[in-house]
Prior knowledge:
Elements: H1 6-32, H2 35-42, H3 46-52, H4 56-81, H5 85-102, H6 106-115, H7 123-145, H8 154-177, H9 183-186, H10 195-208
Helix pairs in contact: 1-2, 1-4, 1-6, 4-5, 4-7, 5-7, 5-8, 5-10, 6-8, 7-8
Amino acid sequence: MTTMTIKEKRTETASHILExxxxxxxxxxxxxxxxxxxxxxxxxxxxxxxYQIGDKKALYAEVIHNVLSxxxxxxxxxIEKAQTPEEKLRCYVRSIxxxxxxxxxxxxxxxxxxxxxxxxxxAEAARDLVQIVGILTNVLKEGHEKGxxxxxxxxxxxxxxxxxxxxxxxxVPIRTNQPAFxxxxxxxxxxxxxxxxEEIEKLILRAVLKEVPRE
Length: 215
């Protein structure tokens, strides 16, 4: 058995704190979250939390930055392996869907930010978001130059993808618990990755393709 270095232990502790903080911020928002609560749930004292990450603002920024920067990296890697603009766009949708499924705290957290006008949205996260949209911009530009995509506004396409995925994820408890919803809706997959992502891919492609294939 190998002995962990102090740096590795610190990284492990910091990662655990961030996972707990993600839950607390999703449940209570930035204003409602308390560092005491995050430290208690993480099983550390406040001094350790401040040493590992920083104050509440730094903690919040790190939570969002980690998710968005990983999403950008995931999307970029997936797109590198794709050959056509159509497949690259599919990879983009899949990477967003996977990120949301792996980080279910993000939809409520992001909706709180949207509702507040981005009052606490960190600058690091904004740069990550610009990077993500930049990846999509390059895909759409390539598709337009090759004559397969119409000219579009990349940020709007990104919002179409994010909007559907985030709202779909947030709808799970409503559509599964409310008797008014038909069984067909109740039985929809709770995860976005997989069949749901494939359907979203088709809808987005139909929106940007110059010639929509007949089915």
